[in-house]
Write a structure and sequence with these properties.
With 248 residues, the chain is α/β, with parallel strands linked by helices. The protein is 29% helix and 21% strand. The longest helix is centred in the C-terminal third of the chain and has 14 residues.
């Protein structure tokens, strides 16, 4: 179902990104009056039951970005030493599904996690010591360092910030959600350049001025027009109000 593929970006009341949630969790937050405000585009309308007295039907409109009240627990905001958990899905997205040795793009099943300095030489399983590699390059490098194997990395690995990690975890990041997250990336984030190159490959756009994609109005207008997956909100019929914890 289309509604199951759309994710809502949840933030705290100050606007710091927290997590991706589905429509059921979004409906629960609306029902419990934990929404401080919402922004972005209207994703879908959720219909519940009818009020026995007024006959009016419960309708919840869910936007692409919602801010919630209360203690949200954004570790990237409260702890300066926070390091996102390392997993292959976000690692491959960090590196744009490129093998950082041969510079070729591969499907997920054809990629692997390579440790720049192998465990046998004291290497650690941390963001700054791992890169995406195709299986051929990984097997060729084997237990050696790139220098020992006479191989060169095409990019420097980095540890994502919490906002970058949220972006990397997104399944289908909409234009307004991407714009919102970009505003929370460090100005020096490599993701700015990587997203710019993605746009140039797709639309043949001229280079964007330094300072990041999020500050360029022409880019943002094109991004909203070209990449917004949902042009009309998805209307989802809920069999009963109780299915989402809503009362008629």
């Amino acid at each position: 179902m289309e509604i199951d593929r759309l994710q809502v970006l949840r933030t705290d009341v100050s606007g710091m990104p927290l997590e991706w949630i589905g429509y059921r969790e979004a409906a629960r937050l609306y029902h419990q009056e934990q929404i401080a405000y919402s922004c972005g585009s209207l994703l879908y309308k959720l219909y519940g039951g009818h009020n026995a007295v007024t006959g009016r039907r419960t309708v919840v409109e869910v936007n692409s970005i919602i801010a919630t009240v209360g203690i949200a627990g954004n570790p990237g905001h409260t702890r300066h030493d926070y390091v996102p958990p390392l997993n292959n899905q976000t690692l491959f997205r960090r590196d744009a599904h490129l093998c950082l040795y041969c510079a070729q793009r591969f499907l997920t099943r054809e990629l692997s996690r390579d440790h720049i300095r192998p465990f046998s030489q004291g290497g650690l399983d941390v963001w700054t010591n791992v890169v995406t590699a195709c299986r051929r390059c990984n097997n060729h490098k084997a237990w050696r360092t790139p220098e020992q194997a006479h191989m060169q990395l095409i990019a420097v690995p980095f540890t994502p910030t919490y906002a970058e990690y949220i972006y990397l975890k997104g399944r289908r990041v909409l234009a307004d959600q991407m714009e919102y997250l970009l505003a929370h990336f460090p100005r020096t984030s490599p993701l700015h350049d990587r997203l710019q190159r993605k746009v140039e490959r797709k639309w043949g756009q001229t280079p964007i001025p330094l300072g990041g994609l999020g500050s360029d109005p022409i880019f943002l207008r094109q991004l909203r027009h070209q990449e917004c997956v949902v042009r009309n909100p998805v209307e989802h019929e809920v069999a009963t109000a109780q299915a989402l914890g809503l009362e008629a």
